[in-house]
Amino acid sequence: MEDGDLWLRESVHGDRYVIWGSGRDAPIEAEAVERLVSAGLVAVNTNTSASLMGHMLSLTPEGVAANSAARAERLRQIAALYRGITPASAGAAQAVPSPGAALPSVSARTR
């Protein structure tokens, strides 16, 4: 929605759905968009017909703030995950399998 490329459309039967500006289905349900609209996070441009073109969706200032906060939280969590990873020390001995372990066992009858 940040790019202004999501549209809320309505079929001739009254079913609502969300598409990208290119006409492909968007990965969000119309019900989720309607909840975001009722929460004041998304605005619907009603200057166009929902059945022909659709209503363009955009983030409200509150939606932009919520999206920025969520993005910052995701980045904080990713950074914490990376801090929790301890790299293997260069001096640690690596486990090396014995030469016979790499070969399949062959019975005496197949030799």
Assess the beta-strand content as a share of residues: 15-25%
Structural class: alpha+beta
* Strand order, largest beta sheet: 2-1-4-3
SSE order, one letter for each helix or strand: EEHEEH
Helix content: 25-40%
Number of strands: 4
| Main pleated sheet | 4 strands, antiparallel
Radius of gyration: 27 Å
Count every helix, treating DSSP H or I runs of 4 or more residues as helices: 2
- The general outline is elongated
How far apart the termini lie comes to: 68 Å
Instruction: Name the average pLDDT.
Output: 77
Low-confidence parts: none
Topology summary:
Elements: E1 6-10, E2 16-20, H1 30-38, E3 42-44, E4 55-59, H2 61-84
Antiparallel strand pairs: 1-2, 1-4, 3-4
Short précis:
The protein is an alpha+beta fold and 111 residues long.
Task: Please describe what this structure looks like.
The chain has 111 residues and is an alpha+beta fold. It contains 2 helices and 4 strands; from the N terminus they run E-E-H-E-E-H. A 4-stranded antiparallel sheet has the order 2-1-4-3. It is elongated.
Q: Which labels suit this protein?
A:
111 residues; alpha+beta; four-stranded antiparallel beta sheet; 4 strands; elongated
